[in-house]
User: What shape does this take?
Amino acid sequence: MFTSNCSVNKVEKKHGVPFLEKKNEKLTINKTNKNDIISLMGYPSTKSFFDNHIWIYIENKSTKSSLIKLGKTKYIINNVLVLEIDNKGLLVKKEFYTIDDVNNLKYSEKATLSTDKDSFVYGFLSSFKQKIDSPRKNRSKKR
Assistant: This one.
């Protein structure tokens, strides 16, 4: 008899706010405020780096694909909800993106210019990296 540790049921990994699409439908523009959003969905997964009035909620559900595809991660649900809140705390705009919307995003073809190795920024970052990478013993002996 052969026994295996394989499970018949696929293991699903979940991350973020569950049932984001249903919760999105409960939000009403110009009526829902910050407190309503937090009580319904909790605190946002992230806030905009440049503007604290944009809240981003994420729902992600993934599983491993079949053995034929070498167990690559397959995303079942990948929803993103972007909420824009005005200075008074009211919801003024909401955008909901599904996995299909995310797959159809177009990225810029422009490339970032590499830094000049003689520049101040390059020198500062490389010396900073060396300090982080150096073993602690070597630093304590130098003192």
User: Anything to note?
Assistant: Helices lie at 20-25, 34-41, 99-103, 120-133, 136-142.
